[in-house]
Amino acid sequence: MMAETKSICCYCGTGCGVIVTSDGARVTGVRGDPDHPANRGRLCTKGANLHLTVRSDATRVLQPELRPSRGLERRACGWDEALDTAAERFAAVIREHGPDSVAFYVSGQLLTEDYHVFNKLARGLVGTNNIDSNSRLCMSSAVVGYKTTLGSDAPPACYDDIEQAKCIFIAGANPAFAHPILFRRVEAAKKSNPDLKLIVVDPRRTDTAASADLHLAILPGTDVALFNGMLHVLLWDGLADFEFIRAHTEGFDALKATVREYTPKMVAQICGVTEAQVVQAAQWFGQSGATLSLYCQGLNQSTHGTDNNAALINLHLATGQIGKPGAGPLSLTGQPNAMGGREVGAMATLLPGHRDPANVEHRAEVAQLWDVPSLPERPGKTAVEMFEAVRSGEIKAIWIACTNPAQSLPHQQLVREALEQAELVVVQEAFAGTETAAYADILLPAATWPEKEGCMTNSERCIGRVSAAVPPPGKARADWEIAADFARRLGACLGKGDLARRLFYYEHAQQIFDEHRAATRGRDLDMTGLSYAVLESQGPQQWPYPQGAQAGTARLYGDGVFPSSSRRARFADTRYRPAAEQADARYPFTLLTGRLRDQWHGMSRTGLAARLWNHVEAPLLEMHPLDLERRGLKAGALVRIRSRRGELVLPVQACADLRPGQVFLPMHWGSRFLSGQGVNALTTNACDPQSHQPELKHAAVQVEAVDLPWQMVGLRSGDGAEWMEKLRPVLGQFPYVTLGLAGRDMEVMVLRAAATHAPDAAALTALEQLLALEDGTRALSYRDARRGIAKRLLAEEGAITGALLTGETAAAEWLKDGMERGLALSEVRSWALAPLAAPPSGQVSRGKVVCNCFNVSAKEIEAEIAGGAGLVELQEKLKCGTECGSCVPELRRMIEFSGAESCKN
User: Fold this and answer.
1) What is the C-alpha separation between 58 and 473, in angstroms, rounded?
2) For 831-850, b where at least 16 C-beta lie within 10 A, e where not — what string?
3) Are 176 and 293 in contact (CB under 8 A)?
4) How many CA atoms lie within 13 A of 670 on its CB side?
5) Does pTM surpass 0.85?
C-alpha cells in the first residue's frame, strides 16, 4: 500500500515543498506540493527526480566502518565500537593538546536540529569554537553584508515580491539553472507585466542573462565598481530618497564622497561595459519605485564578497527601496538549510539566535540557555583556515558531517594533504562514493532525505517541516542522533559524563527544535511562537514569529527601524578592488566557475540519477571561438587547463557566451568523475577578510593543446551508479578519463579515456573484467594489434548491454543511444564493430536531452525550429517546457540562435 508524506526538497535554498510517495520501505515517487508557498506544486528537474537518488543501497554507507591505523583498509563494525573509538581518540587529543586541537566541519544540508546538536557538542561540551559549515563557501559574504548594512543577517524581502516588483535586478546569479522554480516566477511576472524590467549582471550570457531586458556582461570581480557607478547616477539624476536617508540611515556622507569618483565613464572602463548601460541600469533601478534584487555566488564567492553585497544593499538604502512590496535585497541561498545553520549559529563566526561569539554578553546568554559554565572565547577556525590548520598539525582530529570538502573546498591539493596529515578523520555520510569518504578513519552511516525528521529554513526566512517517508537503510541513523550519542560517550571519556547526559538528553527531534527556538526569544529572528504542531497545521512560516503571533512576517524593516545599535541602517563605504588573481602572460585566461542545470554541488546525490546527466554528460571547458581559432584548437579537442595550484585535461568547446580571454567550467566535477582532483584543484583559497569566504568564482589559468591520440570508450547498461563505482580504479590510469551516465528508463554507464599510446594487453583484459565483458559465448570481438584497435560487445537476451571500444571509437555515440533503448544486437550485428560515426540505417542518434520532463532531445527541437516552430509550437507539439519549465530559457535561446554558434550547456 502506497503512502504519501509531505516534506521539503533537499537541493537549493528555494525550499520547495514535495509530496513523497513510498511503499513503507522505499521511495517510489515525488511530486511538487501545491500547498507549499515556495513552489506551488512545481519542481525543477533535480527535485522531480529526487526519488531516483535513494533507490539503491549499493550507493549508501550502510554500517559503521573503522581502521585501526592509516594504510589499513576499513572494516565493518558496530555503532558501539565506532563511537567508543571516536570518543576515546577525540578525548586523548583534547587531553594532550586542548579543545582547539579538534574541529567539526558540518553542512548546509543538515537539518536545523542536526546543526543545533553539533554546535552544542563543539562549544558546550568540548569547549572550542572550531565548528564551521560548508555554508562558508556560499553564504558567509551575504551574512556579513546584511550585518554590515542592516544590522542583522535577515533577508528583508520575500518570494511574493517577485510578482509585485517593477524592476528585478539579478546580480552574480543564474537562477535559470541554480534556482529554476524562482526563475519560473520571474518569467511569469514578466509575462503578466511586460513593463517589468529585468536587469542581469553576469560576465557570461547565461540563460538568465539571455532573458534580460538589459545584460551587463561585466568583467569578473568588478561588481563594486558597477554598483558604486549606479549610485553615482542615482545621485546625479535625483533618484535618491533623501528623506529616507536622513530618517533611517547613517554613513551616507562618506559613501557619497567615495562614489563621486565612480562616473559612468570610469565604471565603463573598469567593468568592460558601456556608459549607457551603467546609466540605464541605474535609472531603471531608481525610477521603478519597486526594485527587487536577487543575488548569489557571483557576489559571494569573492575576496571582496562582503563589499559586493553591501554595495548592492547601498542602492536599496539610497532609494528607500526596502521593506516595501516588490522591493529589497534578497540573497538566494545555495543550500536547503544554510539559513537554518545561520539561525543556530553553527559556524565559527556565529552563535545561536544571531549572536556573536566575540561578544561577552552573547556568550553568557548562550551559556545560560545551555546551562554550562561558559562558552569558549578564542575565535574558531573558518572552513579554509580549518583545513590549513589540519595540514599544519594545529588541529589533530576533525569530524566531517554531510559535506564533501575533498571536492568542494578550493585548492584541493592543500585539502587532501590536510586529510592525509590529520591524526583522525571521522566522516558522517550517507553516500559511500564521496571523495572525502576515502580519507575516513571512521566512517559513520547517516540518514538522508527522505529518512529524517526536522526543519529547514529557506532563502525568504520560511521554516518548513521535513518529514521522514521511509526508514534509513542498514544501520544508518539521523545526524543529530549520531552527534548526541558521540557527545555522551565523549563526555564520559573527558570526565564530564553528567554534563554530557544533561546536555544531550534528546529522545526525538522536537525537543531539539524547542531548545533552538528558545534561544531566539527577544532576538530579531524570534520564533518562539512556532512549534512542530504549528508548522504541521499551518504550513511553513516566516520568522520572526514571536510567541502570540498568528502568522509569520513576510517583509522586514517596513517601519524604517533596523536591528542595529542606532536603530538605523548603515551605508558601507565600499571601494572597488580587483579579483585576487588577474590574468597575466603566464596564465592568460580568467577561469569562471558556475553550475549545470540538472546537477547540484558535488553530485553525490544527483550524480546517481542517469537522466540528470542527459543534458550534460561530461565535463567540458568552454572557450570563446576566437580563442580557439587563435590557438589552433578545434571543438572537442583535449586541452590541459592549469592554474598555479593544479591542472586538468578536458575537451574544449566553443562558446560565444563568454568574452575572449575567459573560460568556463561547471563547479560540480570532482575526482569521482574525472582524472585529477577535480575543478577545485584549479581554484584559489584566497578569502574575503571579513566573511572568510573563498574566491571560488575566479582564477587565472593557462590552456594548451594536449596530444592524446589513443582513445577509449566503455559502455555498460544496468545500475549506472553501481557500474561507476566499479570503474573508479580506472580514473588514475590515464591522463584523461571521465565517468558518467546516460539514459532514462535504461541506464548506461559511460567511460571515456585518452592516452599517448595504447595500454598493454593485460590492462585491456583487466578493463574487460571490470566491465564484465569477458563472457566469450555472449561477446562479439575484434582486434587489430598492429593498429592498436580492440573492440568488444556483450549481448544479453539479445540486447547489447556492454561495449569496450579502444583505439577507434567512432561508433560510441550511436551505440550508447541504442543501449539506452535496448538495441538488439541482431539489428546492427554487421555494423556494430565498424568505424561508423553515423548510426546504421534505421538507427537514430538523438543527441543531448534538453527537456528532461518529457525526454525531448536537442535534435528533435532543432528539427521543429528549422520548420519554423517558435516556443508556443514547440510546447504544443513536443510538450517541452510545459512541466517544470527548466528548459524554457534554453528553448528560447535555441530559437534565437538557430544557425548561430553558442554554448551547448
Assistant:
1) 11
2) bbbeeeeebbeebeebbebb
3) no
4) 25
5) yes
